[in-house]
Amino acid sequence: LLSVADAQQRLLNAFSPLNSDTVPLLNAAGRVLSESIKAPFDLPSFDNSSMDGFALKAEDVTGAQNSSPVELKVVADLPAGRSTLIHLQPGQAIRIMTGAPLPAGADAVVPVEDTDFFGKQSGGSYPGQVKVIKPVSPGENVRPKGQDIHQGDVVLDAGKRLRAQDVGLLAMLGISKVPVCLQPFVALFSTGDELLPIGVELTPGKIYDSNSFMLISLLEKYHAKVLHLGTLPDKEESVVAGFNQAVQAGVDLILSSAGVSVGAYDFVRTVLEKRGQLEFWRVNMRPGRPIAFGNYQEKPFIGLPGNPASAFVGFEVFVRPVLLKLSGMSDWSRATQRVRLADPIQSDGRESYMRAVISRQESGWEARLTGHQGSGNLHSLVQANALLLVPSGVKSLPVGAEVDAWLLNDV
Ligand code: AMP
Ligand code: MG
Questions:
Q1: Is the CB of 257 under 6 A from ligand 1?
Q2: pTM score, two decimals?
Q3: How far, in Å, CA of 294 to CA of 277, rounded?
Q4: Which of 178, 222, 367, 408 has a CB 3.0–4.6 Å from the CB of 323, allowing a cystine?
Q5: What are phi and psi for residue 301, nearest 5 degrees?
Q6: 141 and 83 in contact (C-beta within 8 Å)?
Q7: Which atom of ligand 1 is nearest to the CA of 265?
Q8: Which protein residue has the closest C-alpha to ligand 1 atom 23?
């Protein structure tokens, strides 16, 4: 049986990042940069005040104290967004607001709190003179040009998924069109004669198709575009028709649930064996042993197990990294937490992904299993905020043993 790591490697080797595209900045959050971004200019782009106060020459106020203030002549007012051609002379100050450019001749800003103007009403008029009651050092309360970023610096690397702060920085740099990778386009179908769409009444032996909903949600969580081909009956020709539709649509990946095991009606695997290529169809893991990978008319295919918990885990273990690689991401490692078991664990030696709640205790992170871990049971996964990783070869772990946990609630 193939190990999880080997199966992941074989899968990832079969995919490369998609082509790139350009999107308006407002649509860029969540997309992955296809090129690194260099700063076209310094940030800040000019020396500016970090305080509301008075721009001055620091050497003019070296002796300023509450008991012996230094009085300066106020020669101009500089709200944010304005600039002045005035060159400050010794003994002079300019009232300045946060973000306004530091006038020539000034080398520091004294906050309004350290002047006799503190508490006076704001507005257009500024005082003819100001008394400074505290010294400032040269450069104090000034944000110098290039303090944050120098022109030509690489500020965002290719392969990074853009977050709100990344988009904010791109705006600071005036970048309105962003080079990103295309989003993976994935066809999804579920198979099974027992499946009914929600909305109709259940009849004996039937269940609702839940995997489609869960898997579409997962695909969208990882920013894929989904072509939902619905629920296919357990018939070879129906499965073939599903595959053909996916190929025609030009998807990057065909994903299915169920029908890849050893059941008499598991036609997905049969179809692949007959009309495509099957690379592997079983992995040494729990839940989720029946995971198929291959291709159908050159289109890569991943067949997830039908059992809902297995389908979920199979997705997180195998489909997620594929989607992230296709999306152009350079790093698909996951948020993990080392945790100490508060419940003992029994396994069967397969690499196991156990549903658990992890919580921070005084002694550190602790994990408790959530309910029945059967592969058909979704409630224990719903209650879980983590999956505990039990390595292959391990059949039991006592209370107090440490394992890695994958966080499920990170967004
Ligand atoms: P199979 O892989 O076809 O042997 O299915 C394994 C188990 O998963 C069976 O109990 C199926 O009824 C169940 N199952 C298959 N497809 C779905 C689905 N789309 N939603 C919920 N359960 C499913
Ligand atoms: Mg089935």
A1: yes
A2: 0.93
A3: 5
A4: 222
A5: -130, 135
A6: no
A7: 3
A8: 306
